[in-house]
Design brief:
By secondary structure, the chain is mainly alpha-helical. The chain has one domain. Helix content is about 40%, strand content about 5%. It has six helices and two strands. It has helices at about 25-30, 55-60, 70-80, 90-100, 105, 115-130; strands at about 45, 65-70. Strands 1-2 form a two-stranded parallel sheet. Helix 2 links the parallel strand 1 and strand 2. The longest helix is centred in the last third of the chain and has 18 residues, at about 115-130. It is globular, with a radius of gyration of 17 Å.
Length: about 140
C-alpha cells in the first residue's frame, strides 16, 4: 500500500503461509506502476522485522525499492525522538487491514473458489481506493 493506505497489490494465500514467502509475488503484482523518481527521490519500502533476511532484502532491492526494515520498538523510538506527536508508519498497514475487515463478506472466508475470493478482495480494494479520491460529493456515502 502507499503512504495513504491505498492497496496497490493483492495476493491471496492460505492462512498458514508466512507473508515473507510471497514477497516477490506481491511486489510483482503492483497494479499502479510509478514513474521513475527524480534523482533526489527514490522508492522506499517500509517492512517489519520479518523481512530482515538477506534474501528478502535482495528481493526488495531487485524491484527497485530502498528497504527500511526495523522492529516495532525501534521504529517507535526513532519517530518519538524526531517528533513526539507523530505515530509510527506501521499504523497505515493496520488501518488498511481494518478497512478490509469492514467488508463482512471477507472477514470470514466462506467462498469455496479462490477466484471468487480474489475478486471480492479486488472489489474491496477498489472501493477503499475510491474512498481516498478527493471529491466534492462522495458518491458512496452521499
Amino acid at each position: 500500500m502507499d503512504g495513504r493506505g491505498v492497496p496497490l497489490s493483492l495476493v491471496v494465500t492460505g492462512a498458514n503461509v508466512h507473508d515473507c514467502k510471497r514477497l516477490d509475488d506481491v511486489l510483482a503484482a503492483i497494479v499502479v506502476k510509478r514513474k521513475a523518481p527524480p534523482h533526489r527521490r527514490s522508492k522506499h519500502l517500509c517492512a517489519d522485522a520479518g523481512y530482515r533476511g538477506a534474501e528478502h532484502l535482495r528481493t526488495i532491492e531487485n524491484h527497485g525499492y530502498i528497504p527500511h526494515v526495523v522492529g516495532r520498538r525501534t521504529e517507535a523510538d526513532i519517530i518519538k525522538q524526531r517528533d513526539p506527536k507523530k505515530k509510527a508508519r506501521r499504523w497505515i498497514v493496520e488501518v488498511c487491514h481494518s478497512w478490509f475487515n469492514r467488508f463482512r463478506k471477507l472477514l470470514v472466508r466462506y467462498e469455496k473458489l479462490e477466484r471468487s475470493f480474489v475478486a471480492l478482495n479486488h472489489l474491496a480494494a477498489a472501493i477503499i481506493a475510491f474512498r481516498k479520491v478527493p471529491a466534492d460529493v462522495n458518491i458512496i456515502y452521499g
